[in-house]
Amino acid sequence: MQSDLAAPVEPELGPSAAVQEPLAGRRVHHSICGEDWEEWGQVLAEPGVRYVQVHDGRHTAGTLIAEQGVHVRTIQLILGHTDVRTTQGYVHVAEAMVRDAAERMGGALWGD
After folding, report:
1. Tens of pLDDT along 66-103?
2. Number of C-beta neighbours around residue 59 at 10 A
3. Can you give 28-67 as a three-state secondary structure string?
4. How far is residue 19's CA from residue 28's CA, in Å, rounded to a whole number?
5. Is it the case that residue 108 has pLDDT exceeding 50?
6. Is 104 helix (H, G, I), strand (E, B) or coil?
7. Looking at the DSSP assignment, which residues form a beta bridge with residue 20?
8. What is the pLDDT of residue 54?
9. Radius of gyration in angstroms for the set of CA atoms belonging to the chain, rounded to a whole number
10. CB count, 10 Å around CB of 112?
11. pTM, rounded to two decimals
């Protein structure tokens, strides 16, 4: 079953030639975004920030949202994924999140 957020990839481009736009459910071919990515590199270089891919921001966003306690299914919708397993690969669990979960479980079992 395909989600409303998922859009079919144009057959001549193939899935590896496209990037999923968050929430919009449209695919953008890399050649269209090339100038934007070059500009992104310049923006980072000016203040001396190390280069990171724009796509890395999706992983950062997923993790930051999860750290705020947002449910993974909600993050899935924000990132535009059709399968929650894809979202789980974008959300990196920080040690503080694991500690918080353990403390909550302890509180639920034995009280504060």
Report:
1. 988 899 999 999 999 999 999 998 888 877 888 888 89
2. 16
3. EEHHHHHHHHHHHHHHHHCCCCCCCCCCHHHHHHHHHHHH
4. 5
5. yes
6. helix
7. 27
8. 80
9. 18
10. 6
11. 0.55
